[in-house]
Amino acid sequence: MTPFVYSVIGVLLSYIVGSIPTGLWLGLKLRNVDIRQHGSQNIGATNTMRVLGKKLGAIALLCDMLKGLIPVLIATVLSPWPHLPLLCGLAAVLGHSFSLFLQFKGGKGVATSTGIFLGLAPVPTLIAAGVFAGVLAVSRMVSAASMSAVLGLSIAMLACPDTDLPLRILTITLSVLILIKHRTNIQRILHGNENKL
Question: Nearest 5°: CA angle at 124, between 182 and 171?
Answer without folding.
Answer: 50
